[in-house]
Amino acid sequence: MHIHTRRFATRFTGLFACLLVIGLLPWSWSGNWSTSGAAPAYREGGCGDPATPIHAIQGTDLRSPQVGQRLTIEGVVTADFQETLTGLGGFFLQEEDDQTDGDPRTSEGIFVNDGNNINSIDVNVGDVVRVEGSVNEIDTSFVVMTQFRNVRSMTLCGTGASVAAIEMTLPVSSLDEWEAVEGMLVTLPQTLTVAEGYNLGRYGQMLLNTGDRLSIPTEVVPPGDPARALAEENLLRTIMIDDGSNEQNPDPVPYPPEGLTAENTLRAGDQISSITGVVEHSFGVYRIHTTQPVTVEYAALRPTDPPDVGGRLTVAAFNVLNYFNGDGQGGGYPTPRGARDPEEFTRQRDKIITAILALDADVIGLMEIENDGYGPESAVADLVDGLNAVAGEGTYAYIIDPEGFELPIENSREGGDEIKVALIYRPASVTPVGPPMTTVDPPFDRRRPSLTQTFDEVATGERFTVVVNHFKSKGCSGAGGLNRDQDDGQSCFNQERVEAAQTLSTWLATDPTNSGDPDFLIIGDLNAYAMEDPLMVFQDAGYVNLLLEFPGTADYSYVYFGEAGTLDHALGTASILPQVTGAAAWHINADEPRILDYVMQYKSE
Q1: What backbone phi and psi angles, to 5 degrees, belong to 382?
Q2: Is residue 223 domain-resident?
Q3: Residue burial 48-74, b: 16+ Cβ < 10 Å; e: rest
Q4: Which domain, by its residues, includes 104?
Q5: pTM > 0.85: yes or no
Q6: N or C: which end of the chain has fewer CB within 10 A?
Q7: Quick check: is 114 in a domain?
């Protein structure tokens, strides 16, 4: 069986950038204002005159002891990102090596925010610069970052200077290690693994980790304390690298050095080394803005063929990422959840058709297809027409009119969602037996109903039943009671997913399609990882997790915040297990940066 890798998740700064409102703490100063124990508030003066040490501004705590003070600092420029539109609107300044305090708890570097300031001058790396300004902190629920801004004067005192980069090694013992070098030039001697490049094309950043790929905690350990401990361990193993720019949709994309294309992609699992840059804390994460080119080893090449799982028949699950075909006649765009125009839909359709044909599967469960019935202009009919236009008329067909609804289904919606599940198959390989069935027992009365169909193998007459699913997501909007995040690693709506697993397993025990055969396969997106409660419900009901029964080197279908896990599953009854020859995920999606998807928005020119 093939289980296709699922679409990307919304993540990291893409999420935070949408939700975050950054406020700046106002500052004021009067001549007799001071902080107990603070260094002298030197102002003005000439090059080489006394200045406030940067380590005195950074202090030993998360927050600066000198917020709001007008001071003068002098140091070496370690990174120049002064461009307001394409850079960060400032530069990083670091205390000269012989001026440091030797305290590993205090940073010797700081970001000077001089964007659009008439008192600033153009600087270069290696310049010695004297700056009068004020200490400020970006302070929100996501970040506390000390910086120097409101520049009153800036003087070039020398050129060609340098400071030694601090050597950092992952994993860190705590995030305090990154806080202690905030604003400083650092270097990592390790080769790191790309945990994800989801926002590589959007914001020029990628998340790296030490060691093997990170696992979603509840993929490998039980929810609760074990999951929380692994989440903390994962966090200490990661660092984000960024491109020193606030620009969105950078062109060219900064990584890999040779340029990002569909053919020369950068995938999760690739290796990155030669990392040198300055440390910033923004949008909730510590990151290194690189100042030198990184070295890339392409260790996770995109697989051209699906994994060989053996057997006479292949069953697959495939998420088609909001496949909406407009009005079915070439118009009706933008659609509620899918393509915004015919061009995007064509890109989406072509990609999906190519992938499904390459799967070469006999039965395919689809998730996230438009919930617009089964008529000739429906989304599922359009997809099958597209497959047959390439593979030959009649190569694929789709299951229609599942029973269990009060309304005729051909031109109506199933459940209360914009999307639904569907089943397509190859008539030359399998024959549907009886009508498809679904249940609207809670919680399926208000969510995406599962779809069940029995098939006979044409060659042998062997019978089996496939159940395709798409359980409630982990998103927290509208969650209440036990469906709120219980801080156990299972996120929101776990209780509803447990109820769905209980309802489904109980209903399937009644043999709803009257198959008279115990061989059942449960496939699709259960929105639960391998060690979570819904999977335990199915296990207790006698179902076997086939991805665990046939373990591969990388069985995951989803990457979220750099951690990989299986939301998409293949489960089987004990009776079908001896007939299954293999199960694996085909990694052609989750490891890729989203800039390669069909959506034309947020792309470089």
Answers
A1: -65, -45
A2: no
A3: eeebbbbbbbbbeeeebbbbbbbbbbb
A4: 34-166
A5: yes
A6: C
A7: yes
